[in-house]
Design a protein that fits this description.
Belongs to the IspG family. The chain is an alpha/beta fold. The chain is built from 14 helices and 15 strands. The two termini are about 25 Å apart.
C-alpha cells in the first residue's frame, strides 16, 4: 500500500498520536500511514485451497493484511504453499501467523513458514508458562530478528498472564485505597503488553518492528486500556474488540469503541472481529472496517451512495431498489475499478425518493437522482456536478440512471479524462 495523503485526512479535534512506523510486508502501519484494515481467516490453514480462496476474497474486499492460524505442523507446512499460490494469483497480501503455545517450535521446525510470513503474532499470556515463558518468547523474537520480520505482541484478557495479574492483585490489596478488580485487570493488560515489548527490545528487536494490541470484549474496557497504552507508549497499535459478537451487536460494539479511540488519534490498524452467520460471508468484517474509517472521514475506499430512509411520501420501492443495486454494483466492481479508474473511491452518488430533499441532496452529490414520491409527477431529475443534466421518465428510469452513472465514471476517472487532459 502506498502512502496516502488525503486533504482533511484526520478531522478530529485531537491530533493523531504519533507512533513508530512498522513495515508489514510492504504495508506501512503507524507513522504517517493511514489506518490499515486487516482481517483473519477462519479456515483450517492446513487446507491450502480453502485458505487461499478466503485470503483472496478478504484481500479483494479490501483487507490490506490477513492473519492465519498457525497451530500445528500441518498448518505451518501449508503457509509457504499458500504464499506461493497467492503470488501466482497476483495477490501480494501480507500474511500474519497467529501463534499460541508452541509458536517457538513451529517456527524453528518450519523455516519456510517463518520466511513466508510477513509478521508473527505472539500472545504473551500463553507463549509459555513459568520458567519457559521468557525462553520461548525470546525464541520467537530471535526468529523474527533472523528473518527480518515484525512482531505483534497481542495481549488478550481471555488468556492474560495469570502470574502478573495475581501479583498486581496482591499489591493492590495491600494498599490503603485499593482499586477495583476491573481496574487492576486493565492495568495488568497494559503492563503485559509494555513489559513484553521491553523484553523484545532487550533481545534485539527494534521498536520499528513491534506492534502492540490489547484485546478485550467490553467497549469501556477497550477505550480505557488503549487510552492508557497510548499514553505510555509510542508503539504502533492494532485496535480490535475481541469476541464482539454477531450481526448488529458486533458491528455497533466495535464501531462505538474504535470510533472513540480513532477520533482521539489512537490506532494504526484495525480489525472488526465479527462472528459470521452460519455460512455467512467472512468479508463482512472488512466491509464494516472500511465503512467505519470512511464514515469518520479518515479514508476513502468506495464511492458513497447517499439514499433517503423513506417515509409516507415515498411508498414506491424504486429508490430503495435502485440504491441497493448501485451499492451492490460498486462493491462488486471496485476490485477492477481501483485499477481502471484511479480516484473513483471519492465518487458520491445520491438516490433520493421525493421532492422534499431529493433535488438538494442530488445537487450536493457528484451525480444524483430525485425519484418521484407518492402523488408526484412521474419524472426524475438527474443532477451532475451540481447542475441539472436530464429528466428521466418512463419504466426504465433505474436502468437509464445506472447507465448515466457508468458513463460519468468513465468520463471523469477513465480514459476519457486522460484524453481530455
Amino acid at each position: 500500500m502506498t502512502a496516502e495523503t488525503v486533504s482533511g485526512y484526520f478531522s478530529s479535534p485531537f491530533p493523531r498520536r504519533r507512533s513508530v512506523g512498522v513495515d508489514v510486508g510492504g504495508v506501512m502501519v503507524g507513522g504517517d500511514a493511514p489506518v490499515v484494515v486487516q482481517s483473519m481467516t477462519n479456515t483450517d490453514t492446513a487446507d491450502v485451497d480453502a485458505t487461499v480462496a478466503q485470503v483472496a476474497a478478504l484481500h479483494r474486499a479490501g483487507s490490506e493484511i490477513v492473519r492465519v492460524t498457525v497451530d500445528r505442523d500441518e498448518s505451518a507446512a501449508a503457509v509457504p504453499k499458500i504464499r506461493e499460490r497467492l503470488e501466482r494469483l497476483g495477490l501480494n497480501v501480507p500474511l500474519v501467523g497467529d501463534f499460541h503455545y508452541i509458536g517457538h517450535k513451529l517456527l524453528a521446525d518450519h523455516p519456510a513458514c517463518a520466511e513466508a510470513l510477513a509478521k508473527y503474532r505472539i500472545n504473551p499470556g500463553n507463549v509459555g508458562f513459568r520458567e519457559k515463558r521468557d525462553r520461548q518468547f525470546a525464541a520467537i523474537v530471535e526468529t523474527a530478528i533472523r528473518y527480518n520480520k515484525p512482531v505483534r505482541i497481542g495481549v488478550n484478557w481471555g488468556s492474560l498472564d495469570q502470574e502478573l495479574l495475581t501479583r498486581l492483585m496482591d499489591e493492590n490489596q495491600a494498599k490503603g485505597s485499593p482499586l477495583t478488580a476491573q481496574q487492576v485487570t486493565r492495568e495488568a493488560i497494559v503492563q503485559s503488553a509494555l513489559l513484553s515489548a521491553e523484553l523484545a527490545e532487550e533481545i534485539g528487536l527494534p521498536r520499528s518492528r513491534i506492534i502492540l494490541s490489547a484485546k478485550v470484549s467490553q467497549v469501556q474496557d477497550l477505550i480505557a486500556v488503549y487510552t492508557e497504552l497510548a499514553r505510555r507508549s509510542d508503539h504502533a497499535l492494532h485496535l480490535g474488540l475481541t469476541e464482539a459478537g454477531m450481526g448488529t451487536k458486533g458491528i455497533v460494539a466495535s464501531s462505538a469503541a474504535m470510533g472513540i479511540l480513532l477520533q482521539q488519534g489512537i490506532g494504526d490498524t484495525i480489525r472488526i472481529s465479527l462472528t459470521p452467520e452460519p455460512g455467512g460471508d467472512r468479508t463482512r468484517e472488512v466491509q464494516v472496517a472500511q465503512e467505519l474509517l470512511q464514515t469518520m472521514g479518515f479514508r476513502q475506499f468506495v464511492p458513497v451512495v447517499a439514499a433517503c430512509p423513506g417515509c409516507g411520501r415515498t411508498t414506491s420501492t424504486v429508490f430503495q431498489e435502485l440504491a441497493q443495486k448501485i451499492q451492490e454494483d460498486i462493491r462488486r466492481n471496485m476490485p477492477v475499478w481501483r485499477e481502471k479508474y484511479p480516484g473513483v473511491e471519492t465518487l458520491q452518488v445520491a438516490v433520493m425518493g421525493c421532492i422534499v430533499n431529493g433535488p438538494g441532496e442530488s445537487k450536493h452529490a457528484d451525480i444524483g437522482i430525485s425519484l418521484p414520491g407518492t402523488g408526484e409527477t412521474p419524472a426524475a431529475p438527474v443532477f451532475i456536478d451540481g447542475k441539472k443534466a436530464a429528466t428521466l421518465r418512463g419504466p426504465n428510469i433505474a436502468a437509464d440512471f445506472e447507465k448515466m452513472v457508468a458513463d460519468y465514471i468513465e468520463r471523469r476517472f477513465g480514459q476519457g479524462r486522460a484524453a481530455a487532459e
